[in-house]
Amino acid sequence: MVKIILHGVDGLSEHEVPEGSNLVVLAGVKKLPGLRYSCGMGRCTRCASRVIGGAEHLPPPNWKEERMLGEDKLAEGYRLLCQLTISHDLEIVQDRLPLKPAWKRLEQKV
Ligand code: FES
């Protein structure tokens, strides 16, 4: 089991989850309350979270994360939880408002 510390929109919570879990899948079967998500496929960014502990154990971002989060948010430590399999303890923060996809943030700057 690995420990997940979630600073979610509903507050701080701690969870023990099986090694090899996908946190969005667990949230989908009500085993990780307080985690915001939607598509589960890297298309919506609703699961975007800033990893503040344990990021060194995660694989590099995949193409969906690169496309949806952009260099700026990846550099800030954001990841798409639906794209990750968790094998070590992790501490994550979900912003109060969902992160917009990278291209929508770019459109707003123009
Ligand atoms: S749940 Fe939609 S991108 Fe992760």
Automatic annotation (TrEMBL):
Pfam families according to UniProt: Fer2 (PF00111)
SUPFAM superfamilies named in the record: 2Fe-2S ferredoxin-like (SSF54292)
2Fe-2S ferredoxin-type domain mapped to chain residues: 1-98
Record-linked PROSITE patterns: 2FE2S_FER_2
Family matches, as CDD domains: fer2
Record's signal peptide: none
Name of the protein in question: Ferredoxin
The species this protein was found in: Alicyclobacillus cycloheptanicus
Classification lineage: Bacteria, Bacillati, Bacillota, Bacilli, Bacillales
